Amino acid sequence: MFRWMHRKKIHAHEQLQSNQSAKPIHTSENPLDEIQAYLQHVADVTYQRIQLGPDAACTLIYIETIIDKTLLYEQIIPPLVSRGQAVTGRELLAEALSGSLSPVISRGTSSVKQVITDILAGDLALLIDQQKMICVFPLTKYSQRSISEAQNEVVLTGPQEAFVENIHNNVSLVRHKIKHPDFKLVQYELGEYTKTTAYIVYVEGLCNENTLHEIQSKLDKMNIDSVLSSNYVAEHLDDQPLSPFPTIQYTERPDTLVSSLLEGRIGIMVDGSPQTLIVPVTFFSLMQSPEDYFQRYIAATWIRWIRFFFVLASFLVPSLYIAITTFHPEMIPSDLLITIAAAREKIPFPALAEVLIMEFTFEGLREAGIRIPRPLGQTVSVIGAIVIGQAAVQAGVVSAPTVIVVSITGIASFIIPHFELGLSFRLLRFPMLILGGMFGLYGIIIGMLILYWHLVSIRSFGVPYLYPVAPLVFADWKDVFLRVQWPKMNNRPRSYGTDNSQRQGRDYE
Description:
The protein is an alpha+beta fold. The protein contains 17 helices and 12 strands.
């Protein structure tokens, strides 16, 4: 029914524990010449000759910078030499060697070009002189980062481990949490030059099969030179490329991916990227934080309400300040109006220009804090904002109320759990500023209506973006504006089209 793993890659240490022999690969008359012709300008390729007996020899071909030399010199060469010298018949040499190197599994192919691809991926190729056979052994060993804490999805309670760049380590983290035969992986090789491994991961029986087929169809149509990050894949999967809102979720936490899979969603893991993709997605799923599920439900619900309030504040407060002070001053209490007017008395710019100057300055400081070395980043972003804001007020460039408004807005934007969604509201803040500065509250109302129309019109793999608010499904509200107790969350969210809606409360045989 589904296409399973096209080309299964197994870790070297797992392969050393197996009892299967290397599979011979039949090639042309002179495979060594063909390989040398393909790899003639590859400086780190090694051709190692080994004398097996008085009239027999072989060649080991590998890339020395990405191969596990410990396995090579302990598990390959010693049994190769000892077994090769014990065999006297040349015709039986290949069969004897393939049977003696049983600790390692190989991948079979009839193409010399595929053998070359395997060598460049970190495999070892064994060529026996005057015989039409190549044995390929996966001995890849790349330098990699160890598993550490999540950098962008930090929580105080709950698991602290995060995905890394090695896809096999990432799969092992997920398998450690889902110990069920229905957890499935479909492997893809993406990129003409990079040959990047990618997995579609899902739980069979929970995910929507139509969504799975749609993802597979889009990956099959990908025709790209390189895939260096999960974002390359995300842009090929995105249903709404012109929308400022993300329709694909990124996560670096295994527990977030696992909880999403158990809700009926699907993940895409890409080798070389610690960010895993999750589809489909809704606006409210992006507003949820892993912290919500590791705290008491009352505290988690209260934090969600705060989060929704500050999301609105993050892009509406500056535009409301401009609209009210410019067009509707009668809405402000007289004492506060006098204070604002006194603060702006000597400011040479209108309120719109004043706020735009501070917003652009704050965005620049935020980006500077990200780009410069991490030990200095937080200091520059915080101290820089305070110093520049105070200096701007003293110089009479901007007023103190404007600095307060921009500061509140900046702090509010950090409360949004997912960076991509926060970036969307940071972008929308400027059109709302312009509408508020040109048309007052009427412009803000028009902008909010356009925004709502856009949100209800977009979908993520067929799922309405504002589900379960539009369309209205009260049954799923228990994990949207509220986070009810786990004993009462008996059903999975209906929004993702899961084939098995019951999560708990059923009898097991």
